[in-house]
Amino acid sequence: MNSNMDKNKLTFDAPCVFEDGCRIWTRIDNKPIGYATLSRNDNIAKLCDIYIYDKSWHLFTLLPKLKIGKNYRNKGYGTELLLYVFQFCTAQHIDVITGTVNGEISRLIPWYKSLGFNVRGKNKLYKKLRS
After folding, report:
1. Which of 33, 55, 89, 103 has the fewest CB atoms within 10 Å of its CB?
2. Contact 55, 71 (CB under 8 A)
3. What are the b/e assignments for 31-69, b being 16+ CB within 10 Å?
4. Which of 69, 28, 72 lies closest to 51 in space, CA to CA?
């Protein structure tokens, strides 16, 4: 856990039942700071997207390109969110999580590997949660 993160204020908002797809929000003091989007096919979940906000909100009045607020990236929040996704999927009887890495592949692949994912090919993720 990153020392810059206040884990006590971090909460997760997930549906009670995961049938076809869902979005899990992570919040600090009830303010959204990121999310993970999942789809489901039987006992396999696909991680469609995981995103932690780089700024909390935009000032749209006079300076539309000025972002103000906190940067939540590179502070451990994404890791905590993904660990919660693993717990959530296990409770929903998911055996495997798959996904595709997009964007900064050279930075993200080592992060996913550190969280137990196997990488197949250039950017395909696979993690077995249960036997």
Report:
1. 103
2. yes
3. eebbbbebebeeeebbbeebebbeeeeeeeeeeeeeeee
4. 72
101: tokens are 């890495």
Note the pLDDT tens digit of each residue in 23-78: 999 999 888 999 999 999 999 999 999 999 886 554 444 555 555 557 888 899 99
* CA nearest to 25, candidates 100, 93, 98, 81: 81
Specify the pLDDT at position 1.
44
Instruction: Indicate the class that CATH gives domain 7-128.
Output: alpha beta
- Look at the block and give the residue holding tokens 């749209």: 60
Question: What does the alpha-carbon distance between residue 14 and residue 12 come to, in Å, rounded to a whole number?
Answer: 6
Torsion from C-alpha of 96, 102, 106, 107, nearest 10 degrees:
-80
Q: Are 111 and 52 in contact (CB under 8 A)?
A: no
pTM: 0.84
